[in-house]
Amino acid sequence: MTTSPEHSSVDAVLGALADPTRRALLDALVARGEASASALAADLPVSRQAIVKHLGLLGEAGLVSSDRVGREVRYRPRSDTLDATAHWMSALASEWENRLAAIKRAAEKD
Questions:
Q1: Domain spans in the chain, listed from the N-terminal domain onward
Q2: 3-state SS class at 18
Q3: What's a Pfam family in this record (predicted)?
Q4: Per-residue confidence (pLDDT) for residue 4, from 0 to 100
Q5: Fewest CB atoms within 10 A around its CB: which of 5, 67, 94, 98?
């Protein structure tokens, strides 16, 4: 089975969001708008090094971006990739609703 670029992006997002620590990091970044790994580590029971690794995976999935500001790296959430994944999930849910409605109509005819 071939994976389209759109599905590769969805796969990366869903894989990244499968981990509760990464979800907590993304929630914290959304709430703050921007933060360093050290600031994020202060609020979570995870080492700074682990936070950096998790942020790297979130970055690979397109969910966060980063910029160096002096000696510090600042991370911020990116919504475009998450929006694309939500759009895919919404389209999938809509397709299932259409299928279920067709089954219901067929069952009611009998």
A1: 5-109
A2: coil
A3: HTH_20
A4: 56
A5: 5
Q: What is the pTM of this model?
A: 0.74
Look at the block and give the residue holding tokens 């849910």: 93
Tell the residue number behind the tokens 């694309």, with chain if given: 84
- Alpha-carbon torsion angle 49, 70, 34, 16, nearest 10: -40
Q: If you write DSSP's letter for every residue of 41-89 in order, what string do you get?
A: HHHSSS-HHHHHHHHHHHHHTTSEEEEEETTEEEEEE--HHHHHHHHHH
Topology of the domain covering 5-109: Arc Repressor Mutant, subunit A (1.10.10)
* Structure letter (DSSP) for residue 19: S
The owner of tokens 């914290």 is: 28
List, for residues 4-59, the tens digit of each pLDDT value. Answer: 555 668 888 989 999 999 999 999 999 999 999 999 999 899 999 999 999 999 99
